[in-house]
Design a protein that fits this description.
It is built from eight helices and twelve strands. By secondary structure, the chain is α+β, with helices and mostly antiparallel strands. The strands form two sheets. It has a six-stranded mixed sheet, with helices on one face. It is globular, with a radius of gyration of 24 Å. The relative contact order is 0.12.
């Protein structure tokens, strides 16, 4: 006997015609009223939006290169942030930090001040949107509480929508993470342990003052200079190749341009430095290199054979962080 087919339920008439569909669990009925599960309906577009990678999440923000450096290079640093519409009356200050205790996305101190962590894992491919979501939730959270990680709503605002584009973005690099607490000596329990671990792992780092977004750091073997640059990859690689072929890509005796990496859509050339070379001793050579680089960037002629070989070598030593 043929097996009876069960009658298929009629799809409910959609209840939402206009407006944003709320986010629900993947296996729950879609709030639009289609009768399908969320993951097979409006959740499909939300999932796609969450996985699409924004190559330059900080583009359009003041200090884009420093945003990238603080995300990828700098252990301990803070920057005051300015909202386009100003802070709420009960929030005395807003500060971006490289990392916060226990890797919290954000925290609101007892006095109402808000701190946002930059080096956390994010739920989507748009780091700017995820950070903006954390920022908005932190501004309305209870004082004295960390802000938990959550998935940002698709289509929500980005940092570029919330922050004042005219405000200066000047990081302050710290030797350790005592900035976490008003009185770090009074730390106890998990926060104290987290502070101790973070301080032990932090490499000594300094931001050069004579050029933009260049960071010196000390490692046990040698020192390095890592310099986030805003130029397009094609132009920058050609310019570096011209300088390298001419023997002008270094920062003085014992230094060497060893390669570069990509991070959040920008290029970051890296130099090896002698172990005794301090951040202060990098200042003048870095300014001289910036002048040579400007001239090389302005040269739009074809590369010579030596310059093409130099570019090939530099390209082979590239890596991508994000």
């Amino acid at each position: 006997m043929a097996k009876k087919r069960r009658p298929q339920p009629q799809s409910a008439k959609p209840q939402l015609v206009d407006g944003e569909v709320p986010v629900v669990g993947a296996r729950e009925p879609c709030p639009c009223g289609s009768g399908r599960r969320y993951k097979a309906c409006h959740g499909r577009a939300a999932a796609q939006a969450a996985t699409e990678l924004v190559q330059r999440p900080f583009e359009g923000l003041a200090g884009e290169c420093d945003w990238v450096a603080l995300r990828e290079l700098v252990p301990a640093a803070t920057v005051p942030l300015t909202l386009a519409d100003g802070l709420p009356e009960d929030v005395p200050s807003l500060t971006l930090a490289t990392v916060l205790p226990m890797a919290w996305p954000a925290l609101r101190r007892e006095d109402g001040a808000v701190m946002i962590g930059l080096q956390n894992d994010t739920a989507s491919g748009d780091l700017s949107r995820d950070l903006a979501d954390v920022l908005r939730r932190a501004l309305t959270s209870e004082p004295g509480q960390p802000v938990p990680a959550e998935r940002a709503e698709s289509g929500g605002p980005r940092l570029q929508d919330l922050l004042d584009p005219e405000a200066a973005f000047v990081p302050e690099v710290h030797e350790g993470f005592e900035f976490w607490l008003p009185d770090a000596e009074s730390a106890s329990g998990e926060v104290a342990a987290s502070l101790e671990r973070a301080n032990a792992a932090a490499l000594p780092t300094a931001r050069l003052t004579g050029v933009e977004a260049a960071y010196w750091c000390r490692t046990p073997e040698k020192n390095h200079l890592r310099w986030v640059m805003p130029h397009s990859e094609e132009r920058l690689m050609n310019a570096l190749a011209r300088l390298h072929a001419a023997g002008a890509s270094g920062l003085g005796d014992g230094t060497r341009l060893v390669g570069s990496f990509r991070a959040h859509g920008l290029m970051v050339p890296v130099w090896d430095l002698p172990g005794a070379m301090t951040a202060e001793e990098c200042e003048k050579p870095a300014q001289g290199f910036a002048e040579r680089l400007g001239e090389a960037l302005a040269d739009e002629g074809p590369l010579t054979a030596d310059e093409r070989r130099a570019r090939s070598g530099l390209t082979n030593r590239q890596i991508t962080l994000s």
